[in-house]
Each structure stands twice: as C-alpha cells, then as structure tokens.
Amino acid sequence: MFETLTKGFRAARNKLAGVAELSEDNIAPALRDVRLSLLEADVELGVVKRFLATVKEKALGQEVQTRVVGKGKKVKAGPAEHFIRICQEELTEMMQAEGDPIAFRTRPQVTGIMMVGLQGSGKTTSSAKLARLLQKEGKKPLLVAADVQRPGAIEQLKVLGEQLGELPDGEAVPVFSIPGGLPVDICTKAAGEARKLKCDTIIYDTAGRLAVDEPLMKELAQIKGQTKAENIFLVVDAMIGQDSVKTAASFNERLGLSGVILTKLDGDARGGAALSVKEVTGAPVRFVGMGETLDKLETFRPEGMASRILGMGDIVGLMKDFEEVVDEQKAEEDAKRMLQGKFTLHDFLEQIRTLQQMGPLQDLFEKLPFFADAVPEGFNVDETELKKAEAIVSSMTKQERRDPELFKRHKTRISRVAKGCGREEKDVVDLLNRFMFMRQMMGDIGQQAGMLQKIPGMKQMAMHRRLNEMVKMGGLEQNPMMSGLADQLLEAAVAEGGAGGPGGMRAMGAGRRKGPDKAKKRKQRKKQKQARRKSRK
C-alpha cells in the first residue's frame, strides 16, 4: 500500500548510514529521495515543500548526542536514525487530529452523521461499515437512505443493513426510506423513526454526483440545516490521489467537514491523500476502509500510518487485528496443546481461517516491525498456499484431522483426500509431512522448556535473553524507552521472588550462604590436604 513512500524513506536512510553528522551536503540527497517518493505518491506539492523544509530545519538544528541507557550502557542514535525519527514526528503531526472521531450528543438527543462525497467513492458501503463500528461501541444506529438519484442505492443499503446481522456478534440495522420522497424530507423525518426504534445514532447516506456542482451543494446544505447533524464525513476514494484533496477542499468550504473517511486504502492506493487532506483542508482523516467486508473500517491512527510509511510496521494495529478475531483464552489453550505436541489438523485449519479473517497476508506482514527491510523490493505474500492447505484439510474426515497417523496405516486415505480437494497426492503428502514435523518440533520445544524451567532461575534468564534479542533485532536499542526494558523486567522478577527470590538464581549458588554442614566438610578437606603435604616433606 505504501510501497512508493516507503521506498523513498528507505533510500534516504541508507544514504545517511555511516555519516558522522548531518550537514547541508549529506542531507540534500536524502531529502531528494523523500521528495520524489512523496510526489510519486500524489502528495500535494505545497505539502511536500512544507514537510521537507521542516525536516531539514530540525535535522540541521539539533545535535545527535550519546545517551546512557540501562546499566551503564551507552547507545548512540546515529544521524540516520535521528533523521528518520524527525520524519516520523512530522508525518504524525501532518495527520494528527484532536478530539474524538465522532461527536456524540447526550441522551435523549440523537446523534446525526452525514455521509457526503462524489458518486462511486463508497458512501453507501462506508455508511454500513460505520454502523458496524458503532455497534461494537454499544450504539444502536439507524441508516437513512437519502440517495434517490442512483438506481438501486436504497435497495443496496437495505441489503447491507441485513448483512450486518450475519456478522459474528452482529445485529441487523434498520434502514429508513420514503419511496418517491425528497432527500431533505427523508432526512428530516428520520429523527422521529429513530426515537420510535430507540436508536441513538442516525447515519444519512446522501446522494453523490460525478463532480462537485451547485445543486448538490445546496441539497447537502439544506439537509445539514434541517437535521443539525454534528458530524459531516466526506467519503473519499484514496486511489484518486490529488483530486481527493481538491474535492475535500470544495466540500469543506460549503459544509464545514468534521473529518474524512478514506476508502480502498487496502488496494493500490499510494497513500498521498492521507498525507495531504488535513494539511490542505484542515479536515483530518477519521476512518479508513481496509477491506471489502463490513467489518473493515478502522479508526485512523496517524502514528501507525507514519510508522508503516517509514517501513517500521504497526505493531499496535496488528494487535488490534488479532483482538478482533482471536479468542484470548482459546489461543492460550491452543498454544499450550501445541507445546505439548497435541496440536491436530483441525486446530491447524482453524488457525488458517483465523488468518484469513484478519485480511490480506501482505497487509499483516507490512504491519510487522522492519518487515520492509527484511524482504526484497516488490515482494508479495502468496496466499494460494494457505488456500491449498485449507482445501486439503477440509477434505479430511474429523477422525483424520484428530489423528493424522491414520494416513500412515491406510495409504488409500491420501488418494481419497487428493481427489476430494482436486490436488495431487504429492500435495497431500507434503502437507502431512510439514505438519508432522512442525508438531514434533513444537512438542520438543515444549518438553525442553518445561524441563529447563524447573531449574531455578532459568525461566527468568531465558526471558531476559529473548527480550534483549528482540530489542537488538528490531533496532530498538536506539529507543530509550525500549533499551532497558529487559533489565527492568528481570529486576521486577527478582523483586517478586523470581530469579533472585526463593528458588531463583540464589538457589543455584549465586550469593548463597554456605550451610553449617558444608562448612564443616570444607575444614576437614583442608586438614587432610595439610596432612598430605607434611607427609611428603
């Protein structure tokens, strides 16, 4: 999604690698790479100039100092890291928004949300997605079909409202419409319907046009005046680049936008619109559409977006994705069984389907820290292997999924599964071999970990080592917040009676006092040695 932007910032960081200090001479090539990537990503020219000027001023005006982190360890944030940190701060500032994404009225008033934009930008689908997001927050929304210009728009909204009830923990959302009615009248009468159905939020799906025109603006202004909607969101297709900024500016002048919803940000969008909208119009991006399904609307996080643009991933966003589809208790039980070597093909199939619910694998991998630096340029995750594995496992019986050893005793089962999923027998055998190897390996790891953790202090030492390795691998030793985290956690374990408490490292002999029996034996051995020396003389 942000390949164009990430490539420019990565090239700038590489050019600054190894320099002793930032100067006019060495920062110019780095800024040139950044400028080209921003322009290629359709970021507005004025925004690019302001961004580069600010970064240059801050980069040349500050000294890169050595910081003491942890227990006497000196870590130097080099000029390249210093430059990237400034870029991250400025990118976040460019997209930062104040206040909550949606301004809610206090009961018994009903909150109004107007969805406006050009035709084809995705207003109707985004209206349903926003209703789903509000449901998760405990709200009861009402959808209003006020788009009477486009044939099928009203019916589409009704279908989407019903589909919301088919989602996990979802509930169908009522849709209010008046056949043959005018948009202003439909929106005005929707408040009474909302009170009748005890809905606390109204989402007005208004009509769009192929271009910004005066009749459209007058109609939207009338709806705003009659409904007194507190929130006016402009739905913008992120793939139209700089045109999205011009559209946002026109709507903002007439309506006073509360924010922008960027759609299709999971496709081939270059990300320029996300950087330009707020700088040009003052209306910040509030939500982003990250997929086609109705649960793929996310609250926009500027810091996460900036981190991904710089190729540093978005671990917070990734954790939120996991929380959406993963049951924490079940995940813990699965992990425990996996380490016990009791993981089955049925569990494997569930893991595959969980990954698929989280969206495209490419998007998930891009959220991993420093993923962009670890793979070659143009790398794409092939999801066909996941689908192939799902088809093969789905063709097995429940008994075969629980006990894969059956395939060793009855070879005809492999042939039957291959025919059932339309694959070669070799594909089935390869999957079974990989699964058995993985299960055996995880079981061995769990067994070794269980044995080692019985030795006093080993659990804390292993945790400390893994944390240090994670910090070094992610380049986070430059971060003063992360670079002493392992030491702090180890100290906390000691304080709680872990590594240094009863049964901890001291029990292994570190700083432990000698008991009276051992001291007595020690004296005896010393006397025996002295006696042997005298006899030799």
> What's the end-to-end separation, in Å?
86 Å
Shape: extended
- Helix tally equals 24
Low-confidence stretches: 66-76, 451-461, 473-486, 488-516
If strands are numbered along the chain, what order do they take across the biggest sheet?
A: 5-4-6-3-7-8-9-10
CATH architecture call of the largest domain: 3-Layer(aba) Sandwich
Largest sheet: 8 strands, mixed
What does the average pLDDT come to?
A: 75
CATH-defined superfamily of the largest domain: P-loop containing nucleotide triphosphate hydrolases
Number of domains: 4
Give the topology.
Layout: H1 3-16, H2 24-40, H3 45-61, E1 66-69, E2 73-76, H4 79-95, E3 111-116, H5 123-136, E4 141-146, H6 153-163, E5 175-176, H7 183-196, E6 201-206, H8 214-227, E7 231-237, H9 242-255, E8 259-263, H10 272-281, E9 285-289, E10 297-299, H11 302-309, H12 315-325, H13 328-339, H14 345-357, H15 361-366, H16 371-374, H17 384-394, H18 398-402, H19 406-409, H20 412-421, H21 425-453, H22 458-473, H23 485-495, H24 516-536
Helix pairs in contact: 1-2, 1-4, 2-3, 3-4, 4-11, 5-6, 7-8, 9-10, 14-17, 17-20, 20-21, 22-23
